């Protein structure tokens, strides 16, 4: 994220969990992240639009098409990420942000700072991933 937000007294664990200062910190962090993704997406679209597709060499065209496909897959992942950012912003508004969707317990501020779209505590996420792995391995 280009706008660096520092984890400081705003995220102090003193006082009530997810107080107004903490909500504002995460709201700003999520909005900055979303703005950066949208900026990168616009730049990619401009680059793809300006790309010269009239390359004579078949190998150059194939390479260019491969690069384009990779870039479009990355943009699709970022589109999904924007949906998760929007969902996190909605949770901030409705007061459920920062609470584990599985246990209802607070998600650690350090985890939220590292992954502001997290919907589960680290422990719940690990249990979820272990269950997924078991089902995948069967």
UniProtKB/TrEMBL annotation:
Its main location: cytoplasm. The keyword Zinc-finger applies. GO terms for molecular function: zinc ion binding. One of its GO terms (cellular component) is cytoplasm. Residues 58-70 have a biased composition (Basic and acidic residues). PROSITE patterns: ZF_DKSA_1, ZF_DKSA_2. InterPro entries: DksA_N, DksA_RNA_pol-bd, DnaK_N, Znf_DskA_TraR, Znf_DskA_TraR_CS. Transcription factor that acts by binding directly to the RNA polymerase (RNAP). Required for negative regulation of rRNA expression and positive regulation of several amino acid biosynthesis promoters. Belongs to the DksA family. HAMAP family: DksA. This is RNA polymerase-binding transcription factor DksA.
């Amino acid at each position: 994220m280009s706008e660096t937000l520092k984890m400081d007294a705003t995220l102090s664990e003193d006082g009530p969990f997810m107080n107004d200062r903490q909500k504002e910190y995460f709201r700003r962090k999520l909005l900055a992240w979303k703005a950066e993704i949208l900026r990168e997406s616009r730049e990619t679209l401009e680059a793809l639009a300006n790309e010269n597709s009239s390359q004579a060499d078949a190998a150059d065209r194939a390479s260019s098409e491969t690069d384009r496909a990779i870039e479009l897959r990355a943009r699709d992942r970022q589109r999904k990420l924007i949906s998760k950012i929007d969902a996190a912003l909605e949770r901030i508004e409705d007061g459920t942000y920062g609470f584990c969707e599985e246990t209802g317990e607070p998600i650690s501020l350090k985890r939220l700072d590292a992954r502001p779209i997290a919907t589960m505590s680290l422990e719940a996420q690990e249990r979820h991933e272990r269950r997924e792995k078991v089902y995948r391995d069967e």
